[in-house]
Amino acid sequence: MVTLDKIFSLCKRRGFIFPSSEIYGGFGGVYDFGPLGVEMKNNIKRLWWDEMIKFHENIVGIDAAILMSPKIWEASGHLTAGFADELVECKNCHKRFRGDEVKDLKCPECGGEITKSRKFNLMMKTFVGPVEDKSTLTYLRAETCQGIYVNFNNVLSSMRMKIPFGIAQIGKAFRNEINPKDFIFRTREFEQMEMQWFCHPKNADNFFDFWRDERIKWYYSLGIKKDEIRFKEVDSSERAHYAKRQVDIEYKFPFGWKEIEGIHNRGDWDLSNHSKHSRQDLMYFDQKTREKYFPYVIETSVGVERSLFAFLCAAYQEIKGGRTKTTKSSKDVEILLKLDKKISPFKVAILPLVKNKPGLTKIAKEIYQKLKLNFMVIYDEVGTIGRRYRRQDEIGTPYAITCDFETLKDNTVTIRDRDTMEQKRININEVNEEINKLLK
Ligand code: GAP
Q: What CA–CA distances, in Å, run from 238 to 113, 141, 185, 268?
């Protein structure tokens, strides 16, 4: 069974994710992505970007800066109670928690008495310029979408967009979370993939349902099963301060059902507030109907790390008893990471059957050099072939190409499928085309 500890250990051991600043004892609520993690993250971001920008009509992308005028955060409501959590502290062990994590006013760690709660704002402060005072204070963005709203007029006029249309963005966001936890689920630095759909208020409900359904289909298409993911209609007492309606997409993590993505009807909250605070007109004028109005915004917002975490959990399998015939006893467990091939860090492993046969390693390296130009490929000649298959299964590489003694005779290699373990022989000249076909 998949547990948080197992995922954490696999991620560290195989170069997906490392705790930040580890040699200095770590840095709370922050993680670094290793060589495999960054590939996986880039794949997820590319898939989301293609989904939004390529496959849907009328969506354009931007990349706004992380640092922005602090006035933006005043207008958006993030500097007030709207973006604050309840903070409580244990009088005994002095650990701090979010109010909603504490039951019966007892410390979840030591059972000690808990202080009264107070509001704690999650914006991360910084200073821009050589003096550190009120005039240079600003904030690291807590959500990427504000960069979209403040560029609404720029995008509208430069791209001649007509409502309904969307603006998408991927980028870092920062929140001074009181109690970051559950590995990469709740961190202080993370990336968001957000799309803001601007529409006429009368069509907002329909578009809300449309985007909600589109987004869950994206997870299905990347290997998340229907019983592992669900919608949660969020009631008004729990909703974000800007949301008229909110549906969370929740994934069944080893530590319970948790939000991975939010679909929000933000109404005209952002555009009207930015209009008011900046004294710029952010209304939309419809040339055809001659109507002028603040568009409503339907937002889809997902954390890259949370979705990556869900993909890892969904892919993780343990198989007892020598699947690759390298485990000693039938009780031994082999890990298989059944990631969708579009998400897996490497697409193909190139393995010479043995490493002390120069003819074989030469051919294997030539195949590696050739495939490398088109796919993420890994070369491995260390250990028995069974162990090497196992290492690739553990990091989710969908295909392995092995050069063996037959190769020297007839110029053929085997291609092994990670999930079925079936192997077929093909000519070396066909490898590129075959992998291309398999990855489609
Ligand atoms: N613009 C809307 C917005 O930011 P949110 O529900 O606060 O809405 C959206 O965040 C998504 O961002 C979440 O569903 C989650 O995937 C991700 N996210 C939010 N806070 C996070 C944190 N502290 N650590 C990791 N991901 C986080």
A: 26, 22, 19, 20
What would the pLDDT profile of 182-240 be if each residue is shown by its tens digit? Answer: 999 999 999 999 999 999 999 999 999 999 999 999 999 999 999 999 999 999 999 99
| Cα distance between residue 231 and residue 270, in whole Å | 25
Residues 379 and 281 in one domain: no
Determine the residue of 30, 251, 306, 311 to mutate for testing ligand 1's pocket, defined as the one with the most ligand atoms within 8 A of the Cβ atom.
306
Same domain, 303 and 366: no
**Structural domain contains residue 61:** yes
Residues 191 and 283 in one domain: yes
Structure tokens at 405: 């003694």
Residues 403 and 298 grouped into a single domain? no
Q: In 3-state terms, what secondary structure has residue 399? A: strand
Residue 208 lies in a domain: yes
- Give, for ligand 1, the residue of 143, 148, 174, 245 to mutate: max count of ligand atoms closer than 8 Å to Cβ: 143
Residue of the CA atom closest to atom 25 of ligand 1: 186
Ligand 1: distance of its center to the CA of 218 in Å?
A: 18
Residue type, 253: F
pTM score of the predicted model = 0.96
CA dihedral 242, 247, 250, 256 (to 10 degrees): 70
Ligand 1 pocket, 259 CB below 6 A? yes
Residue 360 and residue 303 share a domain: no
Domain range holding 303? 4-67+140-312
User: Closest ligand 1 atom to the C-alpha of 246?
Assistant: 6
